[in-house]
Design goal:
The chain is an alpha/beta fold. The protein is built from 11 helices and 12 strands. Helix 3 runs parallel beside helix 4. The structure holds beta-D-galactofuranose (GZL).
Length: 323
């Protein structure tokens, strides 16, 4: 066989292999997913969307629910490393304490992708992070409230997310930036509701009792819709009207906040897509197929919704997504 034909055959084989690899994509890849838990409707939707995205790509997803505990996440990640998985997804419950275990993943040459929350520490510990701009979410919420109340005095109570989590830190920062310099807007009480409905209700009950039965409260800013839904119940139990006596602004855009808007009990939410896994899997495929280094931060959209934005339709569009 002439040299030319040998080279042509070889090139053809390489092309075939590459195209097969590309066609295969992530088929058969084993990917570990350390999920925080199921503290909110949004978290549940993220889990169901991630599983659906993995199935659609033929990925063997190893799912670990940490029940909100960082030590369980660290254990799960070590288990994935021992299994020799191809990649690891992590939704980090808090922002600190990841260097040691992510260094072990790096030394095992297993790419890590962060989902929906960030971490402190060297950025080379993860291939990419898929998350919203959480400071912007807080800013959008604060700007909506400032625009709604105008010059009127508005005492705000804040339900913070999980202590030490990047969304709780960033959403607080963004909201405070938006109301800075506005003398009529003040956060008078702020406490964590840990992103759950039950804790959000409990903390709001305390705020109402401490503030003359709620007469001194103009608005509640909740770092997620689940805590807002809990707060709405507490406001109603106190004999006040959520959405009018006390304005309700939060983040996630889960179906139940749209149901509350339809009932006139909620005023604004900032959308957070539950599909962080799709962009994560796309980045891994480009990395494996073509050695493409993804952007270190893949930022998802944040859109404001109010009762002017067809809340019934938004409820219908989201109600079957696993929230
Ligand atoms: C934010 C995400 C938050 C959601 C909550 O990116 O981590 O965690 O806003 C969830 O609903 O508990």
């Amino acid at each position: 066989m002439t040299l030319f034909r040998t080279l042509a055959l070889g090139a053809g084989m390489v092309g075939l292999l590459l195209s097969t690899a590309h066609a295969e994509g992530l088929q058969g890849k084993i990917i570990g997913f350390s999920q925080i838990g199921s503290e909110s409707g949004w978290r549940a939707a993220e889990t169901s969307v991630t599983k659906a995205e993995a199935e659609a790509r033929g990925i063997d997803l190893k799912f670990a629910d940490a029940q909100q505990k960082q030590e369980n996440q660290i254990k799960a990640i070590r288990g994935f490393i021992a299994q020799g998985v191809d990649a690891i997804l992590v939704a980090p419950v808090v922002a600190t304490g990841w260097e040691e275990v992510l260094t072990e993943a790096k030394e095992a040459e297993i790419p890590v992708v962060l989902l929906d929350r960030g971490i402190e520490g060297p950025e080379d510990l993860y291939l990419t992070s898929v998350a919203s701009d959480q400071v912007k979410e807080g800013r959008v919420a604060g700007e909506w409230l400032a625009g709604t109340v105008g010059e009127a005095q508005c005492n705000i109570v804040e339900l913070q997310g999980t202590v030490g989590s990047s969304p709780a830190i960033n959403r607080k920062q963004g909201f405070e930036e938006a109301i800075a310099g506005k003398a009529n807007l003040a956060i008078i009480r702020s406490q964590t509701g840990d992103f759950t409905r039950s804790k959000g209700k409990e903390v709001m009950e305390g705020f109402l009792k401490a503030e003359d039965g709620g007469k001194n409260i103009c608005a509640v800013y909740a770092h997620n819709d689940d805590m807002a839904v809990g707060a709405i119940q507490a406001i109603k139990d106190a004999g006040l009207k959520p959405g009018s006596d006390i304005l309700v602004v939060s983040i996630d855009a889960v179906p139940d906040i749209f149901a509350a808007m339809v009932a006139g009990e909620a005023n604004a939410t900032v959308e957070l897509t539950p599909n962080m896994a799709g962009p994560a899997f796309d980045a891994l495929q480009a990395y494996w197929d073509a050695g493409t280094e993804p952007a270190k931060f893949i930022i998802t959209e944040s859109k404001l919704y109010t009762p002017a934005d067809d809340p019934q339709g938004e409820y219908e569009r989201r109600k079957d997504l696993g929230y």
